[in-house]
Amino acid sequence: MALNTTLCYLEKDGSYLMLHRTKKKNDLNSGKWIGVGGRFEPGESPDDCLIREVREETGFRLHSRRFRGIVTFDSDDAPETEYMFLFTSDDFSGEETVCDEGDLRWVRKEEIGSLPLWEGDRVFLRLLFEDAPFFSLKLTYRGGKLEKVLLDGREYDG
């Protein structure tokens, strides 16, 4: 089985909109800061899912987005492999709403590294900050710890 998800980093004034996961029960991401997004619903494309999830979690309507890469999560703690479609956008409008999954906050890019993040998120955030070309990233977790990173099929140590 596989799980398909989207993740988006909305960008404004040198900051990303980050979601501090604090409100959902039994949340794998509890206490972590992540971008916005979520699971595909039946029949959705990555774009459909992204547009819906951003609107539901933030209140913002995306006008355009940049598809940055595909991240594969292989974890012995998860029942299935996750394929995450990673996007950024600086073209959106609307009023920010309250998110029922956590607290939204605009965080300056240079401050994001000091937040509680997944180890693998630090890898793809670095690639986003460096404006890396489209990439395929595989993150292998064992016992909750990042064990192996493959970037475009090659070992990567960042």
**Which CATH top level class fits?**
Alpha Beta
Strand proportion, as a percent range, falls in over 45%
Overall 3D shape = globular
Low-confidence stretches: none
Examine the secondary-structure arrangement and name the CATH architecture: Alpha-Beta Complex
Question: What is the structural class?
Answer: alpha+beta
Q: How far is it from the N-terminal to the C-terminal residue, by CA?
A: 30 Å
Number of domains: 1
| Radius of gyration of CA atoms, rounded to a whole number | 15 Å
- What is the overall number of helices? 3
Q: Can you identify the CATH superfamily? A: Nucleoside Triphosphate Pyrophosphohydrolase
Q: How many strands in all? A: 10
**Sheet with the most strands, sense and barrel status:** 10 strands, mixed
Order of secondary-structure elements: EEEEHEEEHHEEE
**CATH fold assignment:** Nucleoside Triphosphate Pyrophosphohydrolase
Mean pLDDT across the residues is 94
Percent range of helical residues:
10-25%
Summarize this, please?
This protein is of the alpha+beta class. The protein is built from 3 helices and 10 strands; from the N terminus they run ββββαβββααβββ.
What do these coordinates show?
Strands 1, 2, 3, 4, 5, 6, 7, 8, 9 and 10 form a ten-stranded mixed beta sheet that branches. The chain is globular and about 40 Å long. The mean pLDDT is 94. The chain has helices at residues 46-58, 109-112, 119-129, and strands spanning 2-12, 15-21, 33-34, 36-39, 61-75, 81-93, 102-108, 135-142, 145-151, 154-155. Strand 8 (135-142) and strand 9 (145-151) form a beta hairpin. The chain has a single domain (2-155), classed as Nucleoside Triphosphate Pyrophosphohydrolase. It is α+β, with helices and mostly antiparallel strands and 158 residues long.
